[in-house]
Amino acid sequence: MGINSTKSASRYAKALLELAIEQNKIDKVSSDMRAIVAAKNETNEFQLFLNSPLIQSDKKISILNQLFENFDTLSNSFIALITKNRREGILAEIAASFDVLLKEHQGIVPVTLVASKKLDEATVQSILAKVKPTVKGTIELTETIDEALLGGFVVKIGNTQFDSSVANQFKNLKQRLTR
Q1: Distance of CA 56 to the CA centre of its chain
Q2: 91-107 pLDDT, tens digit each
């Protein structure tokens, strides 16, 4: 997705969040948006369907209503509006942006901890203790494993990344030696 579609997705997501807050439907709409992201992640056909210029908007809306029959009326109305405006191709991106904006609204800061192997709880808590002073809000931790790191860890907070992995140290050493 390009920068323009990301900006559009963010604007649509912000509008949806404001409506969800106004109508006291945050939890339901949030659940609906997660279902859209899950549908996109589960199959490539979902995005191909959304992008298809051959399927008329009314037909797409009908199919989306059947696919997501348990969605709140606000979510369904929003999806219909997006589709009528021919922006359904960025629906999953809007849904992902909604989640980011909602967490921001709730004061939740997603933090990703990537390590070469599963870290014990004491190590994780030690890392979080160092990260906490830089974070305004509640930390939502996601741990992932990437064996390519060789050792050490990487902490990602929004667009900021702290890399103390062995792989990164080797890369830095190589750069210094080849200057």
Answers
A1: 28
A2: 999 999 999 899 888 88
- Gyration radius (Cα) of the chain, Å: 20
> If we measure between CA atoms, which residue out of 111, 112, 105 comes closest to residue 27?
105
Place of tokens 């949806």: 16
Residue reference for tokens 């559009």: 8
If one counts every other C-beta atom within 10 angstroms of the C-beta of residue 137, the result is 12
pTM of the model: 0.70
What is the second-level CATH architecture of the domain 3-104? Orthogonal Bundle (1.10)
Three-class SS of residue 165?
A: coil
- Sheet containing strand 153-157, strands side by side: 138-145, 108-115, 153-157, 160-163
Per-domain residue ranges of the chain: 3-104, 107-177
Whole-angstrom distance, CA of residue 32 vs CA of residue 71: 6
Residue 112 — φ and ψ, nearest 5°?
A: -110, 130
- Strands 160-163 and 108-115, bridge-based pairing: unpaired
